[in-house]
Design a protein that fits this description.
Blueprint (H helix, E strand, L loop, with lengths): L2 H11 L2 H8 L5 E6 L7 H13 L9 E6 L7 H10 L4 E5 L2 H10 L5 E5 L19 E5 L6 H11 L5 E6 L6 H15 L2 E6 L3 H13 L5 E3 L3 H5 L1 H11 L3 E2 L11
Parallel strand pairs: 1-2, 1-3, 3-4, 4-5, 6-7, 6-8, 8-9
Helix pairs in contact: 4-5, 6-7, 8-10
Length: 258
């Protein structure tokens, strides 16, 4: 090799570290938007990461996940969704019910959105139909909200002596009124009275249990709500302290709650 050719080659090599990174494909970013908290959904996050790994995507290696948790404070979700859109992310995975997916839907009509919800997505305007969702949104429907009457009936079996059942609702949850209507219908069929309690703060939860104690309400149904999921330990402790048979939407990953 001639001296001039060698110098030219060496000079080009000096620029390789600067050029090579620019040629690498950008690592995709997934937005994870939850109405709940990281602590009470650690098992769900682990399952999400496992599912990605099965498809060849490993967090920190070839994909980045940006997590946002509203911790039951639904009014924080729109700003969080907007932040993910500005990032921008390749896709938004929403969990914790309808509030998260509605916030993502309002923030973008182009970035794909995947949801897991317990309500009818067609009635809520999330998708056009089950077989042809259309738009940029698709997901999994658990129909958890439609099971409130079934949980009410199971609670009757758990506490057959109860003539009145307390119903703890989160008034900020979009489907709370629908939940109440379904429970009222179930109560009529079972010839039971209900006492409606509402809470969307820690203090209101304490007040609700003060009422349960004062009025000696013999059984309690905690309606499905991401906020109540984030307060699971608190609710379990209060029901245990007051010895109130209680039915929750789901069982905690770490211990039973009924």
């Amino acid at each position: 090799m001639r001296r001039r050719e060698f110098i030219t080659l060496l000079g080009g090599a000096a620029t390789w570290p600067l050029v090579a990174p620019a040629q690498q494909p950008a690592i995709p970013v997934i937005g994870y938007l939850s109405a709940r908290s990281r602590d009470d959904t650690s098992h769900l996050i682990a399952a999400f990461q496992h599912g990605l790994a099965e498809s060849g995507y490993v967090e920190g290696r070839n994909v980045t996940i940006e997590y946002h948790f509203a911790i039951g404070q639904y009014d924080r979700l729109p700003a969080m969704a907007t932040e993910l859109v500005r990032r921008p992310v390749a896709v938004i995975a929403t969990t914790g019910g309808e509030p998260a997916v509605q916030a993502a839907k309002a923030a973008t009509s182009t970035i794909p959105i995947v949801f897991a919800t317990g309500v009818d997505p067609v009635k809520q305007g999330l998708v056009a139909s089950f077989n042809r969702p259309g738009g940029n949104i698709t997901g999994i429907v658990l129909f958890a909200a439609q099971l409130e009457p079934k949980r009410f009936g199971l609670l009757r079996d758990l506490a057959p002596q109860a003539s009145t059942v307390g119903i703890l609702l989160n008034p900020s949850f979009p489907t709370s009124e629908r939940q109440l209507l379904d429970i009222q219908e179930a109560a009529r069929h079972l010839n039971l009275a209900i006492h409606v309690l509402r809470a969307n703060t820690d203090r209101e939860i304490d007040t609700a249990f003060e009422t349960i104690t004062q009025q000696r309400i013999p059984a309690l149904l905690v309606a499905g709500s991401p906020f109540f999921d984030t307060r699971r330990d608190k609710l379990v402790a209060l029901t245990a302290r007051n010895a109130v048979p209680t039915m929750f939407q789901s069982v905690s990953s770490s211990r039973p709650v009924v």
